[in-house]
Amino acid sequence: MNENESSFDLTDSILRILGIIGFFTTVLAGFVLAGGNLLNLIHPPEIIIVVGTTCFGLLCTHRKQFLVYLPKALLACVQKPLPNREFCQICDSARSYAAVGGGMAVILSLICTMSNLEHREQVGLRVAAAMSGVFVAMLLSQGLFVYLRYSFSEKASG
Fold this sequence. Notes:
The chain has one domain (10-153). Helix 2 (44-76) runs parallel beside helix 4. With 158 residues, the chain is mainly alpha-helical. 75% of the residues lie in helices and 0% in strands.
């Protein structure tokens, strides 16, 4: 087999999928066991800020290469990709953009909260919603882009 070709390995694919599912499941299960409600993690404005900042940041800095990266990154979640230095750089950039997006989500949500104190009984819920932006950013950064970075940097093994 040519070393520039990717091969399908069922065991590797199963372990990749189990790793991703396990990572997300343990985080969410721990949250629920601590008394959290999963619906409290879903706040569209914060998700839009984090995901939008990450995607559009990558688009403006990596342009066409980011568009090539997207389907390869999705496939890398289930199949070992070929090593690719440019894709590693995109993953590193994505982690940075996700962190920036999480920070912006919190700041902007807190500005909205502090600008609308007429309903003081909602302040706690609004602050919790603001923090969900950091959660989404960390989940993307550490749960997805660290994994993808490692996947695109792995040497092919025989």
